[in-house]
Amino acid sequence: PSSLTNRVQILLQSPAVVGAGIGGTATAYYLRQEFGPGVKIDVFESGAVGGRLETVKVGDYEYEVGGSIIHPLNLHMKHFVDRLGISPRKDVASKMAIFNGKELIFEESDWFIINFLRFLWRYGFNLIRMQMWVESILDKFMRIYQYQQYGYSFSSVEKLLHAMGGDGFLTLMNQTLEETMIGEGFSQVFINDLVEPITRVNYGQSVRINGFVGAVSLAGADSGLWAVDGGNKRVCSGLLYNSKSDLIPAKVTSIAVKVRPSKSGAAASFYEVNYIGEDGAAHSLYDIVIIATPLHSGKSDITFSGFSPPIPSHYPGQFHQTVATLVDGLLNVSFLGTTAAASDFMVSDVLTTASEGSIINSLSSLDPVHIPPGYKPTPASHKKVWKVFSSDPLTQEQLKNMFLSWNSVSETRWLAYPAYSPPQRKTPPFILHSRLYYLNAVEWAASAMEMSAISARNLALLAHHRWNEQDGKIDQEDLHTRLRGEL
Q1: How far is 42 from 277, CA to CA, in rounded Å?
Q2: CB 204 within 8 A of CB 322
Q3: Predicted pLDDT of residue 263
Q4: E strands, 117-245, in order
Q5: Three-state SS for 273?
Q6: For residue 393, is the peptide bond before it cis, meaning its omega torsion is within 30 degrees of 0?
């Protein structure tokens, strides 16, 4: 019995993380930072480490097929690559065009001044105003890093957003990007021609997504975007290794709350995580559990038992399907309604407007996740790897319209991000039960690698403060004004 008691005590010093995507592995990394070397961290993952960050091999090279871009102001992602000693991928020149289903309504020139004058002629100062508007939102967004640096955490997505941008950010969550931008004085033609193609490539959805995720999407059209050499998923395996966690390759089926008497005689609750791995069904007890996989229909079917009030297996709302089709082939440039010769066509990213009968959200020529020495982009007269984003799988007929010939076609169907339809009156909770937390609640504000990393750090801090009863570090607003006095 004494050895059993010891075993239970040791087990009960371990937090568990369910999911080893960027959110789960970042959570393990931050839990290790907060709780120190003494705890045993278990990470459950039934699929590949990386989650929605994934690469596919085509010919001799690997290509990014999941989350692919990181913003220069994504400080957590920057910290991860620095800490893990991973390099950013070498930059390759790229050019953008916008396709309305019949022809290219805009094609980027090599000359900045020409692009600027074209936009000025067509949209007035809308583009410059949009950059200023996105920048003002990013300025507020950056406050979260200061809060987290000083160890402050938030008990709900709404409180986290409010700390960053006050009521303005909550308003953004509850109206569409289109309503927000029209309210800010942007023209409808500018929104249709330029803003919607950006939301279509980033979220596969229209400008009727919420204003906050819309702003995140527009920030993703900035210059200076980067990716990880060898594939973004390398960050996940690096964080897992760095956190000294134990990876348990198993599918979590249910989580039950168990109440046991503690030494002091008071009842203490533990979480029994039931899972199925290669050796069959098993379960383990934990005192803290963080779920880092979406609790939504089609994404997860974890059941919760013994909780009062009950915890749903699925929260309201659906995840949006995006199909990523990688085609190693020869593009049919006339599909884009251009009269340019294929040998002169150097556009690498074709965004699309929401035109009637539009079947694709975007078309991009891909560079490998590791850029070999001497690598140069080639014109469309060469066979190369193209990535087509669409809501539905492409038919043979559609492929034949887009490509003259191909060596291979590889299709990945993602339930990639929430289907956003504001008003988002209430996001799912971060706190499911006293020490049971839900990371992916943040995706209903905006889904992005950095948002998952912010949520991971927030929950590691929140779990630590609540474990140690440090309420003074939870839900403290206006820190930036107080810090200004301290600094």
Answers
A1: 14
A2: yes
A3: 67
A4: none
A5: strand
A6: no
* Lookup: tokens for 422: 């504001």
Query: In this structure, what token pair is assigned to residue 394?
Result: 């492409």
Radius of gyration of the chain (CA): 24
Q: Look up residue 346 and give its amino acid.
A: M
Contact 416, 322 (CB under 8 A): yes
Cα 279 versus chain centre, distance? 32
Q: How far apart are CA 31 and CA 41, in angstroms?
A: 8
| Burial classification of residue 431, based on how many CB atoms lie within 10 Å of its CB (0-12 exposed, 13-18 middle, 19 or more buried) | middle
Q: Dump pLDDT digits (tens) for 66-76.
A: 999 999 999 99
Q: Are 165 and 140 in contact (CB under 8 A)?
A: yes
**What's phi and psi for 145, nearest 5 deg?**
-65, -35
- Give the separation between CA 329 and CA 383, rounded to whole angstroms: 5
Helical (H) or strand (E) element with 251: strand 250-261
- In angstroms, the CA 475 to CA 485 distance is 19
What is the C-alpha to C-alpha distance for residues 445 and 160, in angstroms, rounded to an integer?
10
195 touches 218 (CB < 8 A):
yes
| Tokens 């929401």 found at | 354
Contact of 115 with 365, CB cutoff 8 Å: no
C-alpha closest to that of 414 among 250, 294, 249, 314: 294
Is residue 400 within 8 A of residue 331, CB to CB? The reply is: no
Task: Name the token pair of 310.
Answer: 């009950």
Per-position DSSP letters for 55-92, written without gaps between them: EEEETTEEEE-S---B-TT-HHHHHHHHHHTPPBPPP-
* CA 454/CA 460 separation, integer angstroms: 10
Q: Which residues contact 117 (CB under 8 A, 6 or more apart)?
A: none
pLDDT tens, position by position, 271-310 = 999 999 999 999 999 999 999 999 998 899 999 999 999 9
C-alpha torsion sign, points 312, 253, 248, 11: positive
Tokens of 136: 């003002």
Distance CA 131, CA 110 (A): 20
Task: Say if CB 195 and CB 126 are below 8 A apart.
Answer: no
Domains with residue ranges and CATH for the chain: 2-52+232-317+422-486 (3.50.50.60)
Say how far apart CA 43 and CA 58 lie, in whole Å.
30
Distance CA 282, CA 288 (A): 18
Where does the pLDDT of residue 482 fall: very low under 50, low under 70, confident under 90, or very high at 90 and above?
low
Taking the model in full, what pTM does it have? Answer: 0.94
Q: How far is CA 452 from CA 180, 255, 439, in A?
A: 24, 22, 7
